[in-house]
Write a structure and sequence with these properties.
Number of domains: 2
Strand order of the largest sheet: 1-2
Radius of gyration: 27 Å
Helix content: 55-70%
Membrane topology: Multi-pass membrane protein
Keywords: Calcium, Membrane, Transmembrane, Transmembrane helix
Structural class: mainly alpha
Number of helices: 10
Subcellular location: Membrane
Strand content: under 5%
GO cellular component, one term: membrane
Protein name: EF-hand domain-containing protein
Largest sheet: 2 strands, antiparallel
Number of strands: 2
Order of helices and strands: HHHHHHHEHHEH
Shape: flat
Length: about 250
Amino acid sequence: MAMMDTNNGGPQGYGTTENPESGLKEVGEKLMEESHVMGLVILEQGKSQMRMITDGPKGLGYLSLIGGLAMVVCSVLGILFRTGPLKIITQVYLAIFGLAILTVELKKGPFSSYEAFISEYFLFMYGLYGRAMFYVFCSTLLLAQWPFFPDFVCGCYLGFLAFVYVTAGLASSKKLTHELTEDQLEEKFKEHDTDQDGRLSTEEFTALCQDLDIEMNLKQIEAAMLMIDSTHVGTINKEDFMRHFTK
């Protein structure tokens, strides 16, 4: 009877049957190498998605709308599928917070009638860092609902959104510099107040920044406006503009 060639008994590329330990070691090394490559691909994709959110064309308001809507949806799911009075009460609070976010971001529409209430009891949300801290609070509250997965995902998103707000604010603070006199600043304000309403809209403020060679993306523009606008109406009046640029 012919003897089997043991040199070719193992799978190609994974060692031989004469030395099974060597074959297993080689298999392990190949799996580790493949896992490392896959991990690098996933990491790069994650970085790409983060750059798309932080530097992409969508503004802070758009991202906040997604967060507020997600909170409301997750809260409704929690009320329907979770048990226990404390958990239900928490979901109701989360729904209220989500509606507050939608009210702040949607200047018009079904939530506009509640804006006066929000302005009185959620005034901190009209400031950049106040809003970021509110998102951190909501994020921790949502993450605490684990293992309810929808709340956990929403909590991760709001936590990252708070990070985007803070980084955009810090970046815009560093970039808002100029070498103009007060008279020149007043002239620039008047020049870019195209509708002559005494306030700068997002588009007008963006044009003014470009005129001053201040390069900022939409998120940084919106962050700057949140920091400058003390009237909480989404536009910048002359007093706030001069106060910020001459301090």
